[in-house]
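Input.
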Amino acid sequence: MTVDYTKPKYYTNRELSWLDFNNRVLEEARDKANPLLERVRFLGITQSNADEFFMVRVASLSKLAAVNYPKPDASGMTAEAQLLAVNAKAHDQVVKQYSTLNRMLLPLLANLDVHVLEPGELTSQQTRFIEKYFNDEISPALTPMAVDSSRPFPFIGNNTLNIALRLFKDGDKKDKRFATVQVPDIFPRTVRLPGADNDFIMLEDIIKTFIGNLFIGYQVKEAANYRVIRDMDLDVAEEDTSDLLKEVEQQLKKREHGGAVRLEVELGISQSLRQRLIKSINIAEYAVYEINGPIDLTCLSGLTKQIAGHDDEKYPDFQSARTPGLQPTDDVFKTIRQHDVLVHHPYDNFAAVTEFIRQAAYDDDVLAIKMTLYRVSANSPIIKYLGSAAQNGKQVTVLVEVKARFDEENNVHWAQQLEKMGCHVIYGLIGLKTHCKLTLIVRREADGIRRYMHMGTGNYNDVTAHFYTDLGLLTTNTDMGIDASNIFNMLSGYSEPPFFHQLHMSPDGIRNFISKKIDEEITHAKAGQPAWIEMKMNSLSDSEMIAKLYEASHAGVHIKLIVRGICCLNVGIPGLSENIEVHSIVGRYLEHSRIYAFANAGDSQVYLSSADLMTRNLNRRVELLFPILNTTLRQRVFDIFNTLWHDNVKTRVLMADRSFTRIDRRGLDPLDAQASFMDQAAKEIAAATQKHTEGGSVTHQFKPMLSPKNQPKSPIDRSPE
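Output.
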């Protein structure tokens, strides 16, 4: 019997699944096992997540709904239906965010003598302080904007905090006026007060207390905070421009004026002021959110940094391990010639990668460096080393993806700087973002030219490498080197190699390769051979790949998926997805690595990639998938996956009702995978220190911290409760 794997009921809507992911982040803010200040920080992360989601994904839905785009998504929902459902679910999430703040976190902070005070709660000393602070510093930076027949409603910038006011002229309450004041972002949102170590007040509360001083001769009847989130997606028509850099710069200027997709207003705002804002900003009623507390909870991250003391309420400091053979005193090229090297960040220090680039920049035998850059830090050492390499006479070619969302301005700056330092800078292929992470170093050696490569699952960003988990491979494999050269020739010139030896590229190549590997597992399962698939990714939303996984499950292939974020696949569908298990891990570090592994008839294979199984990654981006060929390193990747799979502290399991549920740990030893990797790194540091003291050397190993007692029950076998 032919099975239809594409029925809408088999799929979860992508946007609603994303909101479920953000709810898992919110659960970390509510988890009593986390240090209190980290819980506060997690709550702030849910806000920044939601802001970007609305700026991009909800903005896209709004544009589709505006033109009555008829085609439904894989789950059968039209753009308009998605827009309404997303806002309804987001409203519920906002209620939960502020319930978490007001009922849980603020009372717990008060127990630590940390207070965010209202103006009426201040001492006389604190009241005098905020009045002086307002008059001396804040007031000169404020610009009251009146709205009347000669002065139209001003443009309200994206993600700016503002105060809407109703006023009347002294002695004439019928003389109704409206004005708005932007809260400057040059001051801290949470202002430390005198008289106590950790008393704070919100900046907007200071301004509202004395805002009448800006309107001499008028009385303030009402003042209410509000914020607008706008469409911030960059619309670059690459086919119509000969200079992509200039086009991106122009679009960055225009982006701030995107349409409004969300309006947040202070709870208790009058109906008349609320309607005035809705009409002036031109936004639908369903996109208006009444906020029971400070608008824009991203301010909580700044608060945690301002709080004095209480370091015991933060995560303990973590020192990542140095990779043997890739330190400043080592010859990194000799190390990589001897054996492939696998790095697992942040547990392995990202300095191994920057040292690879640094030594290439100053090595007389290095002829060329070629590199792709998607997101780099504001003070990237890699940029500095690439510039030094060019000035040292090496051929340096850097592909800078100037369309990397929300990093466009930073990347335009670095592209210009690299060109000034003598590097060849390219901007990728028309219509495609270049998202792969690849470095190729060409070196002249005694036995001829040799290619050294670094390929990774994460960005060349020394800052995010401290809190994103990623995997990278350093190798001199000949076939991979030839493939890497062909990739750069494709990106910089006109080249269409008929095939790759070891590497696989998107668009098309990764989709075709993974589909082929799944088909092979289906064949093995039907032949009665061991057949399984293990995958780890950020998001799983491509309907064709999900249908292929359903087909494999239906054929008897056992599938384990670790998906941090969006998951449009459903488990527990009788006869369809009973052989699929999905875990999601949200913890101290953002799980960012991508792993694709297959039983391969007993000769298991594992691949790492920059790509998630999302349509954009498979169809509209230049992505890289590469194999781990070294037996020891391949086993290390399997050990990493298994440790993550058996995590029972930070893991949520996808259930048949589409909810994510924590693992029942009764009778199990707790296993926090990220903590296990940190413990292993600490042991490696201790071993390296001892070996250094004794004059010896240390090898890099990983031993999974598992025991039979750590094995959780399969969700397939668990009862509904």
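The mean pLDDT is 91.
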